[in-house]
Amino acid sequence: MAEVGSVYYRPADLAARTERPGPERARPRAGDELGAVVADPADRVELSESALNYDAELVAARAVEERMAGIRARIADDTYITPNKIDVVVARLYEEVVRGAN
Q1: What is the DSSP letter of 27?
Q2: Distance separating alpha carbons of residues 25 and 40, to the nearest angstrom
Q3: 49 near 34, Cβ under 8 Å?
Q4: What angle do CA 68, 52, 56 make, to 5 degrees?
Q5: In the chain, count of helices (H) and strands (E)?
Q6: d(CA 58, CA 88)
Q7: Residue 73: pLDDT band by 50, 70, 90 thresholds?
Q8: Would you list the DSSP string of 29-57?
């Protein structure tokens, strides 16, 4: 097995380490278009109004509603329950009964 070196830092080791300066945080500049953020004149991000108004929670909620509506429609058409699904349910119930008996 390989030897693992110490991960202990002495206070002198920590004092000798210096923080590297990072880029300034991006801040919007006065007069920039809606959604523009500038950190450096070469760096620029512009978001469309659609992107600014995007609501991920609303989109997710609509997706769930659509999926549930599809499942309800298949149940109403009697096409939701298939032999494969019944087999899976029976197998899970059997496992529960067997585990419960032990």
Answers
A1: B
A2: 10
A3: yes
A4: 20
A5: 4, 2
A6: 33
A7: very high
A8: PTTPPTT-EEEETTEEE---HHHHT--HH
> DSSP letter at 68?
H
Nearest to 26 by CA among 10, 9, 41: 41
Residue whose C-alpha is closest to residue 39's, from 23, 52, 54, 55: 23
Tokens of 69: 């509506």
The encoded tokens of residue 50 equal 């659609």
Strand (E) or helix (H) holding 84: helix 83-101
- The predicted model scores a pTM of 0.39
Domain extents in the chain: 27-101
The residue assigned the tokens 């496992």 is: 95
Residues 6+ apart with CB under 8 A from 29: 36, 38
